[in-house]
Design brief:
By secondary structure, the protein is of the alpha/beta class. 30% of the residues lie in helices and 26% in strands. It has 7 helices and 13 strands. The two termini are 21 Å apart. It binds S-adenosyl-L-homocysteine.
Length: 247
């Protein structure tokens, strides 16, 4: 079996059933990776787990596959959401990719006072999150929400999910303290390149469900702040805490 090939197959997989691959997956396996009938690879459906999947027929236009062995049951990433203000294209790509690798369950683009709004492409975000999930061996694909103004999101917030906002004015709690006992469900909010406005910060400070967090003495770029905040949370209260590979 090719150990490097791992594909998201969104149809619910079950053993011994045959599936026609999408055009993109067909192209990738047959033309790029040159797999042939009888070859197998890893497939996951985001709903039931991961399988060894075998090619059972192939022609120029189509590849048919069958899941022949279940390898892992589904396990979900922790219930942490990332609320991020989209920044420039490459940096936003970085944010999506790192957030997926760092195990967020949901990504919500938020529109803040200083967010540049013309760069929001949900289809692109989704394609990137699938690619990153395939690569990092997640078994679930994060949900990507439509972009929403920050104020609107806050006004409909479910208070059982604590919101940790990364406060560049350094008035928040040190990250170790903030995340020491911060069990999921939680959300992490990072501002745009221009930072949060004074009004936004003052609103965030006065919500009963929010905590401001400081990520040290230096001002980080938004994409660095995302990676730093998620890494700290995973290490202190997420699924890195006691993780050891089984068996
Ligand atoms: N232009 C702003 C910085 C924005 S940095 C300024 O010069 O002040 C982008 C986002 O990253 C911020 O909104 C914040 O959410 C986060 N961030 C950056 N550095 C941070 C730090 N030291 N502590 C907490 N959050 C930080």
């Amino acid at each position: 079996m090719s150990s490097v090939i791992r594909l998201y197959l969104p149809e619910l997989l079950s053993l011994e059933q045959t599936y026609d691959l999408s055009e993109a997956s067909h192209h990738y396996l047959s033309n790029v990776m040159k797999l042939q009938v009888g070859d197998s690879f890893y497939g996951f459906d985001g709903q039931s787990g991961e399988y060894e999947v075998q090619i059972i027929s192939q022609n120029k236009k189509q590849t048919q596959v069958k899941a022949i062995k279940k390898i892992k049951d589904l396990s979900l990433s922790p219930d942490v959401w990332l609320l991020f203000a989209p920044v420039k294209k490459d940096q936003t790509d970085f944010i999506i990719q790192k957030a997926v690798e760092l195990g967020v369950r949901k990504l919500i683009p938020v529109l803040t006072r200083y967010t540049n709004t013309d760069k929001i492409r949900k289809d692109r975000f989704l394609a990137q999150s699938i690619e990153a999930s395939e690569q990092c061996r997640r078994l679930d694909i994060p949900t990507i929400e439509e972009a929403i103004p920050l104020n609107k999101l806050l006004s409909q917030w479910d208070k059982s999910r604590r919101l940790y906002y990364m406060d560049e004015s350094r008035q928040g709690l040190p990250v170790k303290e903030a995340f020491a006992k911060a069990p999921a469900p939680i959300a992490i909010l990072v501002g745009p390149e221009g930072g949060f406005s004074e009004e936004e910060l003052s609103k965030l400070r006065h919500l009963e469900f929010s905590t401001g967090v400081t990520l040290g003495p230096r001002i980080l770029r938004a994409e660095t702040a995302v990676a730093a905040a998620l890494s700290c949370w995973q290490a202190l209260s997420g699924d890195w805490v006691n993780y050891r590979e089984q068996g």
